[in-house]
Specification:
mainly beta, SH3 type barrels, seven-stranded mixed β-sheet, 13% helix
């Protein structure tokens, strides 16, 4: 699988990025000392829902964790894109 790294200078760019992720694609969000991951179920105005196969639906309000985000990884069919915030 191809891996691409993108350095993010302005954390606000993540809102536009999530608008372009297709539902069902795999997303990982690393913030603070924790992370959440799962298939994208829904995204609207900074609020997203992920479906994790073991833990069920995880809801995240991006604006509340924006200052703590370290990385966001997005996996498509044959490519993993890692957005780095550090």
């Amino acid at each position: 699988m191809i891996e691409e790294f993108i350095d993010i200078k302005n954390p606000e760019e993540i809102f536009d990025y999530f608008e372009n992720i297709d539902y069902g694609e795999y997303v990982e969000i690393y913030f603070g000392r924790v992370h959440v991951e799962g298939k994208l179920l829904h995204y609207e105005d900074g609020f997203l829902r992920l479906v994790h196969e073991k833990y069920g639906i995880i809801e995240v309000e991006i604006e509340k964790i924006l200052d703590d985000i370290l990385e966001v990884a997005h996996t498509k069919k044959d490519k993993r894109i890692v957005l780095r915030f550090y």
